[in-house]
UniProtKB/TrEMBL annotation:
<dbReference type="Pfam" id="PF01494">
    <property type="entry name" value="FAD_binding_3"/>
</dbReference>
<keyword id="KW-0285">Flavoprotein</keyword>
<keyword id="KW-0274">FAD</keyword>
<feature type="domain" description="FAD-binding">
    <location>
        <begin position="133"/>
        <end position="341"/>
    </location>
</feature>
<dbReference type="GO" id="GO:0071949">
    <property type="term" value="F:FAD binding"/>
</dbReference>
<comment type="similarity">
    <text>Belongs to the paxM FAD-dependent monooxygenase family.</text>
</comment>
<keyword id="KW-0560">Oxidoreductase</keyword>
<dbReference type="InterPro" id="IPR051104">
    <property type="entry name" value="FAD_monoxygenase"/>
</dbReference>
<dbReference type="GO" id="GO:0016491">
    <property type="term" value="F:oxidoreductase activity"/>
</dbReference>
<protein>
    <submittedName>
        <fullName>Salicylate hydroxylase</fullName>
    </submittedName>
</protein>
<dbReference type="InterPro" id="IPR002938">
    <property type="entry name" value="FAD-bd"/>
</dbReference>
<dbReference type="GO" id="GO:0044550">
    <property type="term" value="P:secondary metabolite biosynthetic process"/>
</dbReference>
<dbReference type="InterPro" id="IPR036188">
    <property type="entry name" value="FAD/NAD-bd_sf"/>
</dbReference>
């Protein structure tokens, strides 16, 4: 009996999710190519956070990734590893209106990390470079995805330069503004969440001067009406991410997710929201030469996908479930996606199947992941309102309990069990495919 034809997949986009998936597929010897519209690898933003659920996913994807992240990631507590701390801090929540110096403000409450290694951060561009060094599949640059057409046996993708490529299946890893998502579900477009953010890296010693060494070494979130500010260490820098609820329901640009602003604009936003000098001084540490942007936060909360695939085309990661970042879990959920998809393809290959049944893998992925991924999108909006004291009648203790319960859902997920269940369900699905 002859073996089935070889699977040949296309990954659209060359971000963190795509490169991680490429590493996973290469471990299974699945042929694939990565198509990227840019001229080189780029990653927007500064800090990338992984929680304990992400650690478990990385172990399933490739144990090398878990080991490398553990070496290069910055953990709470002056870059010490969280497993060496008796009670690792996830975030300490601070009153943004306190008139005390930032280093002496008592926390309103603290949420502790659970489920093992806790939470750590790494610079996004550095992690992307590490992933790229482990990718063995071809990355084809200057390939802007424009559309696709499907047949019973394959899918052809079309690029803006007039070229095309034919594969067994296409996986859109092309982020918030996913063109693959638009091609298969035009109605599911990301919408403005009503919040924007400022992101900046400042020298860690500047953060330590205002926050003290201990507070600068953990994640701290300053709560206030209609805004909140998060700080956490990334290597020798302090990452500052300042969030504001917009009085305008529409984003201020029709062409870009970012708008250039000045440091004074950010300070004015927080002064208007009633934040004290402790927070305003943190914003003032942003170097004058730092190119500061206002980032519109878009998600799929209002327009969720009905399913994550259509035929031989599917979306994964932010392309499937773009979320606001308020749980600090978006990247971790993307790693869960990759771990599950790897497990399904592993089972698929073990059954001796070929390109004709690729859609069954995509369908099973949707069954396993969609409910959880879309929960994150909605829950992230909810916790942002908790951080900004926007829920009437809810006190600090109730807010703390709500946040802890939601973080438990993020961190406590058993990705290994999800893979086992997915493999079993895939075998059953293929009997009727």
């Amino acid at each position: 009996m002859s073996s089935p034809p070889e699977i040949n997949l296309a990954l659209i986009g060359a971000g963190i999710t795509s490169l991680t998936l490429s590493i996973a597929l290469s471990q299974l010897n699945i042929k694939h190519a990565i198509y990227e519209q840019s001229t080189h690898l780029t990653e927007l933003g500064a800090g990338l956070g992984f929680g304990p659920n992400a650690w478990r996913a990385l172990q399933l994807i490739d144990p090398r990734l878990s080991e490398i992240f553990h070496r290069v990631g910055t953990f709470a507590g002056k870059a010490s590893t969280l497993q060496h701390q008796e009670k690792p801090v996830w975030i300490e929540f601070l009153p943004g209106t306190s008139t005390l110096p930032a280093y002496s403000v008592p926390p309103s409450f603290i949420v502790y990390a659970t489920h093992g290694r806790g939470h750590a951060a790494v610079h996004r561009a550095k992690w992307l470079d590490i992933l790229a060094s482990l990718v063995t599949a071809p990355i084809v640059f200057r390939k802007r995805f424009e559309g696709l057409s499907q047949s019973p046996d394959d899918v052809t993708i079309y690029f803006s330069d007039g070229s095309s490529a034919t594969h067994s299946g296409v996986i859109g890893c092309d982020g918030v503004k996913s063109k693959v998502r638009t091609a298969i579900f035009p109605e599911s477009r990301c919408a403005y969440s009503g919040k924007y953010a400022y992101r900046a890296l400042v020298p860690l010693e500047e953060g330590q001067r205002l926050l003290g060494e201990a507070r600068a070494g953990v994640s701290s979130l300053w709560m206030g009406p209609g805004a909140h500010l998060l700080t956490f260490p990334v290597l020798d820098k302090l990452n500052i991410v300042a969030f504001v609820t917009d009085s305008n329901p529409e984003w201020s640009s029709s062409t870009s997710l970012t708008v250039p602003i000045t440091k004074q604009d950010a300070i004015d936003d927080f002064r208007k929201a009633g934040f004290s000098d402790a927070v305003l001084e943190l914003l003032d540490t942003i170097p004058g030469e730092f190119k500061l942007n206002k980032w519109g936060l878009f998600d799929l909360a209002d327009n969720p996908l009905p399913v994550f695939y259509q035929g031989r085309a599917m979306v994964i990661g932010d392309a499937a479930h773009a979320s606001t970042p308020h749980h600090g879990a978006g990247a971790g959920f993307c790693m869960e996606d990759v771990a599950v998809l790897k497990g399904l393809f592993e089972e698929f290959l073990g059954l001796g199947l070929g390109p004709k049944q690729v859609e069954a893998v995509f369908a099973e992925f949707d069954t396993i992941r969609r409910e959880r991924d879309q929960w994150l999108v909605q829950s992230s909006r909810r916790v942002a309102d908790l951080y900004e004291l926007r829920l009437d009648g809810m006190g600090l203790e109730e807010a703390k309990n709500d946040i802890e319960q939601r973080q438990e859902i993020c961190w406590g997920f058993d990705v290994e069990e999800a893979v086992r269940e997915g493999k079993k369900d895939l075998r059953e699905r293929l009997k009727h495919f």
